[in-house]
Automatic annotation (TrEMBL):
It comes from Halolactibacillus halophilus. This is Anti-sigma factor antagonist. The lineage of its organism: Bacteria, Bacillati, Bacillota, Bacilli, Bacillales. GO terms for molecular function: anti-sigma factor antagonist activity. PANTHER family: ANTI-SIGMA FACTOR ANTAGONIST TM_1081-RELATED-RELATED, ANTI-SIGMA-B FACTOR ANTAGONIST. It comes from the Bacteria. Coiled coil: none annotated. Residues 5-111 form the STAS domain.
Length: 111
């Protein structure tokens, strides 16, 4: 099994940034959950997830973000997704998750 996902975690004062590269699916979602959920459990933590290099995501990935959102509500932290590619953003729109998860569409990586 080839896990095509890398996650870099950077932590500063009250902010955790996860930079994700690859595909989020049934095989890689557990790794994402393992890295993302502990950050959401920190009170008043701001979690930013950079999805610029995520080329594919399925419903399993959406489930991880829903779990993370629930955790932020319980712990008083916030979750923002940034730099979504169009096909990934479309998945959030189709499921109406873009109305409950903060997605910053103005922050685009322009390198």
């Amino acid at each position: 099994m080839n896990i095509n996902l890398s996650i870099d975690v950077a932590t500063t004062d009250n902010q955790t940034t996860l930079t994700i590269k690859g595909e989020i699916d049934a095989y890689t979602a557990p790794l994402l959950k393992e890295k993302l959920l502990p950050a959401t459990a920190k009170e008043a933590e701001k979690i930013v997830v950079d999805l610029k290099d995520v080329t594919y995501m399925d419903s399993t990935g959406l489930g991880v973000f829903i779990s993370a959102l629930k955790s932020t509500k319980e712990h008083g932290s916030t979750l923002t997704l940034v730099n979504l590619q169009e096909r990934v953003h479309r998945l959030f729109k189709i499921t109406s998750l873009d109305s409950i998860i903060s997605i910053d569409t103005t922050t685009r990586g322009g390198e």
